[in-house]
Amino acid sequence: MFDYLIVGAGFAGSVLAERLASVADKKVLIIDQRDHIAGNAYDYYNKDGILIHKYGPHIFHTNAKRVFDYLGQFTQWRPYEHRVLASVDGQLVPIPINLTTINTLYNLNLDCSQLEAFFESKAEKKDKILTSEDVVVSKVGKELYEKFFKYYTRKQWDLDPSELDASVTARVPTRTNKDDRYFTDTFQAMPLHGYTKMFQKMLSHPNIKIMLNTDYREIIDVIPYKFLIYTGPIDSFFNYCYGRLPYRSLEFKFETLDTEVFQATGTVNYPNEHAYTRITEFKYLTGQKHPKTSIVYEYPKAEGDPYYPIPRPENAEIYKKYQQLANAMTNTYFTGRLATYKYYNMDQVVAQSLALFDKISQQQSEKHVNGEKVFQTT
């Protein structure tokens, strides 16, 4: 008898497995249909000995000290601040848009105070910010919106920004200084030996058993357990009874090149002229020294592994129906990007699972009845 059966060995499931095993002394079985742990953060050494991220670049950043300190139990950190250039008008310029971006594109020599006025002159004020297009156009105007966001967003989501929730482009701010870091979070670092090593340590507790290459439906009626934690797609769990929740997927094209450095920074975005959205060079992220380098091209697509929940009002309505079914279940918990249909960063998933562990700890108290441990929801 396992106390917890956890479906999915990515961040959402692994954090809960570790907390339940090490803090609450519960017996946990964590299963995954893939042949590895670590979910989409899985990394490995390719045949040339270069550490790459199988499911595209994963760059850790957070403002949550609790999350950073928690993961720091399982890895040393390598400080790393990610920088991104965008290929626009035949030039590579910083994104998010900053002072350097504008001065380079327009051949100007503005200072920070003048840049504010420049953006004001371009901005088209909106009464209500409802869509991703509204977010950008209201800050920097149509021209910059089209150069940097419109076509990139179309490629990424197969939707015009006017059809997407404001939260999508709000993730990429506009700056009035020369700060060219992609993120401004307090804690920016990468696991020193990679994500997979971090997950291996996280799941090394003797109370945790792992089953890979396993669909939970194959074993759920065979292996006894008391509580279920599900981190997969919520619509799949309920057999798509309200229809499928749409996701965007990605196709990755990896190349190893016989050169030490391929591009000027970790990631270069291609908003306009190519079918791919960006190219990432892994050695920037990992800090690895190697005579060769490995890069990945990202091609957004509709079918494939579900990566990005599509933030549109009609999708939120479908999710609410599934959420009501989930809330009505006893002894079952849903967490993670897929199970809650939210476009979360890694640190947000960790925070969500830590919060769920806190909730479970409060809800469940052990009683001894007839010499047996039982769990009672309080």
UniProtKB/TrEMBL annotation:
Transmembrane segments: none annotated. Residues 147-343 form the UDP-galactopyranose mutase C-terminal domain. It comes from the Bacteria. Keywords: FAD, Flavoprotein, Isomerase. It holds the Pfam family NAD_binding_8. Its EC number is 5.4.99.9. InterPro entries: UDP-GALP_mutase, UDP-GalPyranose_mutase_C. It is an enzyme of class 5 (isomerase). One of its GO terms (molecular function) is UDP-galactopyranose mutase activity. Belongs to the UDP-galactopyranose/dTDP-fucopyranose mutase family. NCBIfam families: UDP-GALP_mutase. This is UDP-galactopyranose mutase. It comes from Chryseosolibacter indicus.
